[in-house]
Amino acid sequence: MPLWFARGLRRGVVTTRYPARPDGSAVSLPTPPAFRPGQLTRQTADRMIAACPGPALRRRDDTLIFDVGACTACGRCARVAPDAVTPSGEFELATTDRAALVKTIPILGGSDEA
Amino acid sequence: MTAVEPRAAAGTREHLVRQLVGLGGTPTLDTSPASNAVTVSVPAGALEAATHAAAGISGVRLADMFADDGDTTVLRLVWACEADEPGYVITESQIAGGEYSPLSDIAPAAFVEECEIYEQFGIRPAGGKPLNRVMLPPHSGAEPPAGRPPGPALPTLGHQPAQPPAEVHAPHLVGGQAFEFPFGPVRQVGVESLYYGLVTSGEEVVDLYLFTWHKHRGVEWRLRGKTAPEAIFLAERAEGLSAVAVGWAFAAAAEAAARVTAPAAAARTRAVALELERLYNHAAATAALCQATGLSVGQAAAEIALERLLRVNAAAFGHRYLFGVVEPGGVSRAPDGDVLRRELPGAYDELRRAADALLSTNSFVDRLAACGILTAEQARRLGLVGPVARATGLTTDARLAAAGPYADHPVNVVTGAAGDVFARFQVMLGEVAESVRLITRFLDDGTAADRTLIPSRAGTGLGWAESPRGEALAWVALDEDGRIARARLRPGSARNWRGFDDACRSQNVFTDIPIIEASFWLTVAGMAR
User: Fold this and answer.
1) Could you give the angle at which helices B243-258 and B228-235 cross, rounded to 10 degrees?
2) pLDDT 10s digits, B78-91
3) Bridge partners for B487 per DSSP
């Protein structure tokens, strides 16, 4: 057991203050989506809502409501609407107010059926 | 009726198929020529004799059993043939009248599936033996407490059973000085929901049963009606720590059903991801063994290696747990080979250094040796897979039955002999080295983000992959539109939990149970899928 004590001291502290430095692999990791309001139509929004495996997306008239706290960054919305969605690259989601995680995005593209 | 002991005979597919044909079976034509699986239609009246024949062949293992609803319920048994040219034989039998021969009396490995099939399809083995609750929670569809809104009733895949399944603990008799110690389903930190019914006289584990149904998700039910590309998202989440293995098994089943094969470079990409999955899981199991034995510095050392391996995954494939790599027909991403060649050796050395230190620590090794023993005979009778089976001396490994990259670079199967926790740990360490070797070979041969289109056509297919916790199986039936009529997912955990209580009962005490659980390294999600 003294050997493990010495081993622990020798290896030292490997945890770091967060974030110690940008992580190079972070750019390719899945992150929650960012939406392009001008590319959003009601039909596009409904397709994304149907593709979302959780309750992260819903629509109220011409507004897309996005709950970042319910998003698992699976990327399915981006697959069905690649023009309207980009990866946000955002990891820093912590907040003291749950409501701050719910975002409203205006649907500026109108309706495909118009 | 007693369990059948295998006689000395070649456990080849051809040998088994000949036996089944001799009993009135008919090989079906709906088998992909690229697949190592053969389907034989067996009359229900010959099912008992067919099971006797298969269970009696050395090197043949009951790998899975499941049902499907149509005009009548179809019962399918998947037999793994592990001698000479490994492969699988599926028997399918039409069950009329709600009962079939009690197959677990012949092949004990069938009992859990007999219970599951009763819950999901309402058919049961003849003879009235008690069937335990294994999948659906008892509150599914029940009246909610006063003032609470009704929750959704969990759907079954076929008919509801005539009577609810037995609750294991209800008829459980505890006599003498023994008493029952309930533990779970809520456990410490982020461990999955699992209920232990521990019967003890104070310290020794006299008996143990498990409830794994608390988080049942109905994944197989949810797959119905989806196309294979839509369904892979759910399939790889059936057991997230085996996302690549279960995803590959499912994709291979869909490809076999559609009569296509993934391009060779895509298959090598899958194999790279599969071996990376094995690496991080075995590192995590090492850390869990240290935690269970109270060796916190060793745990930290193993977790440093684990974190490095997860970062290698992220840098190579864009996801720490390798989700989204496998797609039906191929893969969505190619690995960054430069990153793997540069980063993987360092991460492996980190794990190796921690393991070498652990192996020279008597207080660690002594806790693992002679703990949670399973014999090869127990592993064979229960159809166990993965490191748990290999630690007993069995050479069970689904990679041996795989075409493509594993045929080009055959895996050196690592086995143990003692069947205890220490043997399982040593098997995992041996497999870590083998995974690093295989990844290098697959990268040298070339990987690519390539795929074959899955055509819309009807068919059935079986797929498999060797997950870190053992053989993962999937069976898929597609309709004419290419949509899933029935999908069966059987992760390795669904097989190996049935050996856990036997391992715990083998003269162990309370504090051995976390060590045994870490050495099995199973997921509850794999059962509660």
Assistant:
1) 160
2) 999 988 778 999 99
3) B476
Backbone CA torsion sign across B439, B280, B88, B484: negative
Fold held by A28-114: Alpha-Beta Plaits (3.30.70)
What is d(CA A49, CA B474) in angstroms, rounded to the nearest whole number? Answer: 29
Asked if B142 is an interface residue toward chain A (Cβ–Cβ < 8 A), one would say no
Task: Indicate the residue type of B72.
Answer: T
Q: How many residues does chain A have?
A: 114
pLDDT along chain A (114 residues), means of 10: 79 75 73 94 95 93 95 92 91 88 92 69
Domains of chain B: 13-125 (3.30.460.80), 229-520 (1.10.645.10)
Partners of residue B41 on adjacent β-strands: B26, B92
d(CA B250, CA B244): 10
Query: Which residues of chain A make contact with B363, given a CB cutoff of 8 A?
Result: 1
Show Cβ contacts of residue B249 under 8 Å, excluding neighbours closer than 6 positions.
Answer: B463, B464, B465, B472, B473, B474, B489
Cβ A29–B300 below 8 Å, yes or no? Answer: no
**Mutation for testing the A interface, residue in B297, B323, B343 having most A CBs under 10 Å:** B297
Whether ipTM > 0.90 holds is no
**Gap between the Cα atoms of B86 and B203, Å rounded:** 44
More confident residue, A26 or B484: B484
Residue B365 has pLDDT above 70, yes or no: yes
